Backbone:
């Protein structure tokens, strides 16, 4: 009898333990393989984007002729083309460009002779700072209003908020920026019209040793409250103009997902137990509805970088978008190529980070 009991006990334990161990192996393997695949996809994505940008830039001819053709004598133009290597076969130029990028060398701008890598690090910090401010505006405006629209669905506030979301997304960034400047800077005089900081504050920030280029961080390191206030005041209008573009997307996304979650089975079960609608919204429907927000942040970063071109030009916020417009006007395609490639790399990396966060939050995306 003892032997029989032991055999039965052992036979019953194995089926229970084996699926649990197999499930753990599948879960870990699923996450590991998912992250590995997503990481490896960065390289072909960046390679395709770099190749596309290179080909499109070369379709206009060599960068020297595009930037300085008609301004220099033919002999001087030919000499500069030969010195830069643009008279060589296109495949040779392409291979050399790839090797330069791998080394972190994006070339030299033709219009001002500045190293493109130095320009990217100097002005890239300004664009990243503006994108960060804009994301804060998008979260603060879009998520609470989306939650409110779901709670008041099919009522007049819901209709108003949906129209507001459409206007946020459809209104051109430069038009929204001009309206904000007209109302809050020109008419009311509450905020600065343009720039990242006033002249005095900018001189202090530029002279700070070991500065990061992100004015808020540098102002905090400087320890001057007036400079911090000045930097934040200059950031308000550009951040709102660019952030509302993404806030409209977040508003509609949160509203749709909260309404969908409120109609799910476990919410209906909680409702049948007498749980109030307000508690259902706060405890059961709101948090699951935020998961899709994480998955679209990568796309919104690309949208913010694109919108930064118009925002920085409107507010004279000297970042990559502002510089891109200047280099386009100068037909300096070497610098333009560097800015576009950097933006592509940033978007690819951000999308990978978002994929990692989404996989940790929701295991279903791993398979």
Residues:
């Amino acid at each position: 009898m003892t032997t029989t009991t032991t055999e039965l006990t052992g036979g019953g334990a194995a089926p229970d333990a084996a699926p649990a161990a197999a499930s753990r192996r599948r879960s870990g393997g699923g996450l590991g393989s998912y992250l590995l695949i997503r990481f490896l996809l960065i390289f072909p994505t960046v390679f395709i984007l770099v190749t596309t940008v290179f080909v499109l830039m070369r379709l206009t001819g060599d960068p020297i002729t595009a930037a300085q053709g008609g301004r220099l004598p033919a002999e001087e133009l030919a000499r500069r083309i030969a010195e830069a290597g643009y008279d060589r076969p296109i495949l040779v130029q392409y291979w050399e460009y790839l090797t330069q990028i791998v080394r972190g060398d994006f070339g030299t701008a033709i219009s001002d002779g500045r190293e493109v890598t130095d320009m990217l690090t100097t002005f890239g910090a300004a664009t990243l700072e503006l994108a960060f401010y804009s994301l804060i505006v998008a979260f603060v405006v879009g998520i609470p209003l989306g939650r409110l629209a779901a709670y008041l669905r099919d009522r007049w506030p819901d209709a108003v908020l949906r129209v507001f979301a459409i206007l946020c997304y459809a209104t051109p960034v430069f038009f929204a920026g001009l309206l904000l400047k007209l109302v809050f800077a020109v008419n009311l005089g509450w905020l600065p019209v343009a720039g990242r900081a006033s002249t005095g504050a900018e001189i202090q920030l530029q002279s700070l040793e070991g500065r990061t280029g992100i004015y808020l961080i540098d102002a905090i390191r400087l320890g001057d409250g007036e400079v911090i206030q000045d930097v934040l005041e200059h950031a308000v209008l550009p951040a709102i103009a660019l952030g509302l573009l993404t806030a409209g997307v977040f508003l509609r996304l949160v509203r749709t997902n909260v309404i969908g979650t409120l109609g799910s089975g476990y919410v209906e079960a909680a409702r049948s137990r007498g749980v109030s609608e307000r508690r259902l919204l706060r405890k059961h429907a709101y948090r699951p509805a935020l998961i899709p927000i994480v998955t679209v942040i990568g796309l919104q970063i690309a949208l913010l970088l694109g919108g930064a071109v118009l925002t920085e030009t409107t507010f004279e916020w000297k970042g990559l978008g502002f510089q891109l417009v200047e280099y386009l006007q100068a037909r300096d395609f070497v610098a333009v190529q560097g800015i576009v490639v950097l933006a592509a790399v940033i978007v690819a990396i951000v999308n990978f980070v978002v994929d990692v966060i989404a996989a940790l939050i929701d295991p279903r995306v791993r398979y």
Q: What stands out?
A: The domain at 116-329 is CATH 1.10.3720.10 (MetI-like fold). The radius of gyration is 27 Å. The first helix runs from residue 2 to 58.
